[in-house]
Amino acid sequence: MSKVKVSVIVPVYNTGKYLAECAPSLLGQSLPEDEYEVIYVDDGSTDDTPNRLKEIAAAHPNVQVHTQPNSGWPGGPRNLGIRHARGEYVQFVDHDDMLGSQALERLYAHARRNNSDIVIGKLSTTMARPRRLFRHTVDVCTVENDELMQALAPHKMFRRAFIEEHGLRFPEGPWIMEDIAFVSAAYLKADRISVLADYPCYYWLKRDDGGNNTGQRFDPRHDFWGNLRTIVRQIKDGTAPSDDIDALQNRLLHRLYHVEVLSRAREPEILREDPDRQRPRFEAARQAALEEFPPAVREGLPAVSRLRAELLERGDYDGALAFAERVRDVKAHGEVSPPRWEDGCLVTDVTLELRRGDGEPLALVERDGRQYLDPALLAGVPGTEDGWEIRDPFRLASAELVVKDRDRDDWWYPEGDLDLRLLPTGPGRSRIVASGRLRIDPERLAGGRPLDRGVYEAWAFVQFLGIDRMVRLTDPAAPGAPAAGPALTGGRIALPYWTKGPGQLTLDLGERLRKLGPDTAKAAAANDARGGRWFPLPYVAATASATPVPLKVTVATVTVTAHLVPAPDGTTAHLRLPARLALPAGRHPVTLPKTDAPLAYVVVRDGTVLRTEGPAHETGTGRRILHSLTDNPQIRRIRNRLRGAN
């Protein structure tokens, strides 16, 4: 019997349709079936889940099913799964999520290669913004890499001996944030943590039932604040205290303060929730902030977040509400140059900034050698009449370009970084700007592999002064129009375009939604003939390794499959038609789908394609005589007789 490399632990309760969606992704892994096991732990389901699990186990020898009385929480079932696991590593999966088909094989190989205690696989999700943690694959790091705190969900691979050595278990019973408690404890104990960012391992998808919303977190049955305090103290016990804002303890606590505490004092929550419910949460957050978090955590926040923390910690609910109303209107704005193809990549230059609700840049005001927050954000906020100082405009600031696979909800990071700098906007005023170049390489963007056939959107994420925003890269003046000429790449047609509505820069690979014809008809109609069965499309950029791409064209009234063939120069492609066409003798127009303008004309005699001509082709006098002779029936009979004699 083969060694069990991975145990997949799945807590389930009344899973309904989600079990059928999740199970195939677990049972169809590329890792051989006898090298991993799937452990379902049923938490006392009252629907047909137990029967479904029995059917799965009967059909798959590597599936275990265990049951326990209902606890209502995933911690107990996960711990029971750990006790039954035999694998060298354990991977936690929720019953309504899915794994990539090669996830276990890749994660295990990465773990063994690096002798990892924990491996964090690339997360694809509809419920969270892309995470910087997954920009690059990391062989080994420790909790000193505080970007790990972006990934506190339990959907990771843990070495089982590591779990047992440190007695790691999930809190059981009614314990909100049990996953954060387990994962943060594991981070503090781990010597070797790895990140696998070049393959989408885990799909965490939004479901119809709404998931873990704000109301559920503050259900009276849940001791949210008590649980948070427990986690904070666990981190403080495992790290050294320091007044340095960049000390490890303060960096690790930053995430909990920003997400779990400040959320009670900022948009959207403080603007969305009824004040009668939100004020008690605000006060509880204030008490936790003052009693559990060292002052250095607040002092290390960027300017906007630090002002929120100031309003929270002094108990100014109305001030926090007014500030949230101002910040809510701030939007990210991006400008892009006309996209173009360079060395097989779709390229555009990008500039990003934040703008106020009135469309003006969010300003930094300079006074007496210091910088202050834009006064427009401070209107109605008590205690800011003299301004709010920005101690470091680039504190925790970042900007990322990301490409979203619309079909699969994967996020990919193109190569290259954006530069952050201050630009003047007038006397005594400046703004933070991020600029750089977006390069979408269809042959390498997916973790060094070609992108799959699909539709890919260009986005940016900015975090300036403590305000984070996603923004589409758009050209509002050109919705629905081609963004650049088409390309051939990896045996596929690549069509850059601006979407209808927002005009977002998008790349269609393999004619998933767009067709080649409308994007090339005007350019192709201006081409000259080159003779034979080849016709140049100079606005098609072809990578040197590209293979001929099949393409439907209409010749007269007959639809046939032609091919786009890359030219040796790597910058053009030619249209190659079939050698024979079931058409009468003559000169027939060649058109692309959904176009009227001829791409070319093809000359046919006796069903054979003699040559291809451009729409602007002018036949000379001698050629017209030759054509008339060729069309003469007597001449054709003599020619055919001579051919027969030979």
Give the structure's gist in a few sentences:
The chain is α+β, with helices and mostly antiparallel strands and 646 residues long. The chain is built from 17 helices and 31 strands. The chain folds into four domains: 1-212, Spore Coat Polysaccharide Biosynthesis Protein SpsA, Chain A; 214-311; 331-471, Immunoglobulin-like, CATH 2.60.40; 516-615, no CATH class.
Jot down its keywords.
Spore Coat Polysaccharide Biosynthesis Protein SpsA, Chain A; Immunoglobulin-like; 4 domains; 17 helices; 31 strands; 28% helix
Low-confidence stretches: 210-214, 525-532, 618-632
| CATH-defined fold name of the largest domain | Spore Coat Polysaccharide Biosynthesis Protein SpsA, Chain A
Strand content: 25-35%
Count of folded domains: 4
Report on this structure.
With 646 residues, this protein is of the alpha+beta class. The strands form four sheets. Strands 1, 2, 3, 4, 5, 6, 7, 8 and 9 form a nine-stranded mixed beta sheet that branches. Strands 15, 16, 19, 20, 21, 22, 23 and 25 form an eight-stranded mixed beta sheet that branches. Strands 10, 11, 12, 13, 14, 17 and 18 form a seven-stranded antiparallel beta sheet that branches. It has 17 helices and 31 strands. β22 (492-498) and β23 (505-509) form a beta hairpin. It is globular and about 90 Å long. Residues 210-214, 525-532 and 618-632 have low confidence and may be disordered. It folds into four domains: 1-212, Spore Coat Polysaccharide Biosynthesis Protein SpsA, Chain A (Alpha-Beta Complex), CATH 3.90.550.10; 214-311; 331-471, Immunoglobulin-like; 516-615, no CATH class. α6 (178-189) packs parallel to α8 (224-237) and α8 (224-237) packs antiparallel against α9. The longest helix has 18 residues, at 275-292.
